Amino acid sequence: MSKADLILEANDIYKSFGTVEVLKGISLEAKNHEVISILGASGSGKSTFLRCLNFLEIPTSGTIAFHGEPVNIVNGKPVNPKHIEAIRSRLGMVFQQFNLWTHRTAIENVMEGPIYVKKMAKNLAREKAESLLERVGLKDRMHMYPSQLSGGQQQRVAIARALAMEPDAILFDEPTSALDPELVGEVLKVMQSLAAEGRTMIVVTHEMAFARDVSSKVVFFHAGKIAEQGTPDEMFKNPKTEVFQKFISNI
Q: What is the pLDDT of residue 226?
């Protein structure tokens, strides 16, 4: 692997909230075109780690590098906040609860980032947003507000919004866990098609079929550490740790 292939590198990440240590030395690399699924029980630190990757949470210690360039944190604050803004504009994030602007239509939600962050002309941003909403199967809903859309539709708008920034990688934080079971498939289908396009994705998920069939790497978190990682075949056909065997047999 050339260094050019490396998009994100987390090294020995610790994170505490008060006296509670949630992450206990996590190291992970994400290469170009990789789809990494992060699995683990609730409270194992998966979502906290994902939020550390784009500095929604600041790690207590450890380093995170984006395209080989480390972000310097001193006393729990980034030395250069502009550096973090630049990273966030190139790292898409899709949240569990969609986080759409409720007072903006679907197309306005998707146009927002390109106009205000990338300073794109409004007509070009609109064109781009339209084609992305078509891409996620929602062109006919583009003038609707989030309250008029189902959870699955809102999450697909959120994915289109992340794609509008042309990110180098997209972070997904349990993107289907707030959805009714019958709506999960429509979101996973879009994510599957992104993986097929070669998008770099890091996905915190409870969807075992997605982890097994779509990922290039599966990482299992347990009690704030990586307990096991490998290819989907290695992990699901021949799990090495008792704790992961137990985890998959419970699901």
A: 98
- Select from 63, 55, 1, 70 the least CA-distant residue to 32: 1
| Region for 228 from its dihedrals, namely left if φ exceeds 0, alpha if ψ lies in -120 to 50, beta otherwise | beta
- Interacting residues of 103 by C-beta distance below 8 A, sequence separation 6+: 145
- End-to-end CA gap in the chain: 35
Low-confidence ranges of the chain (pLDDT < 50): 1
Tell me how far apart the alpha carbons of residues 219 and 33 are, in angstroms, rounded to a whole number. Answer: 16
Contact in structure between 117 and 161 (CB atoms under 8 Å): no
Across 20-96, the runs of DSSP E, i.e. the strands, are 20-31, 35-40, 61-66, 69-70, 73-74, 77-78, 91-94
User: How far is Cα 34 from Cα 7, in angstroms, rounded to an integer?
Assistant: 10
- Cβ–Cβ under 8 Å, residues 167 and 202: no
pLDDT at 1: 47
**135-to-7, 14, 108, 190 alpha-carbon distances in Å:** 25, 38, 16, 9
pLDDT score of 76: 75
CB 129 within 8 A of CB 107: yes
